[in-house]
Amino acid sequence: MISENVSDSKLLRRSKEQHVRPVGSIPGLPITGGALSVPGETASFANTRIDWKEAPEAHVFKADLPGVKKEEVKVEVEEGRVLQISGDRRVEKEEKNDKWHRVERSSGKFMRRFRLQENVKVNEVKAAMENGVLTVTVPKAEVKKPDVKTINISG
Description:
This protein is mainly beta.
């Protein structure tokens, strides 16, 4: 990791300029159900990185949120199929006698939104926080296979 001295205003400006990249824009990954493009959705919280995998029985989202308590995180499903993960990492209290040499950990609010596919059970979403990792599990609905009726051919 390269270390450089940068003024607070440059750090703030740099963090505001880093935008979240939709899943569909990564070469080789399908565009189905990528991150929503939300006006003002920027990385004010160290580019809150979230992995999204689809298993046979559920969609699983994992977010690294070190130092964040589960009470500071909110997981919601809105507008039917939009999963929203948001929260706030508080700034450490500053004591008068403290002399900071470096501030690299970010703080502030974050929000990520994902449009879920149609085959999910939004009423059965579960979330758990363990060792600074938030895991959100969205079960998939059973896809009903179409009934196939064989037709006898006469003649």
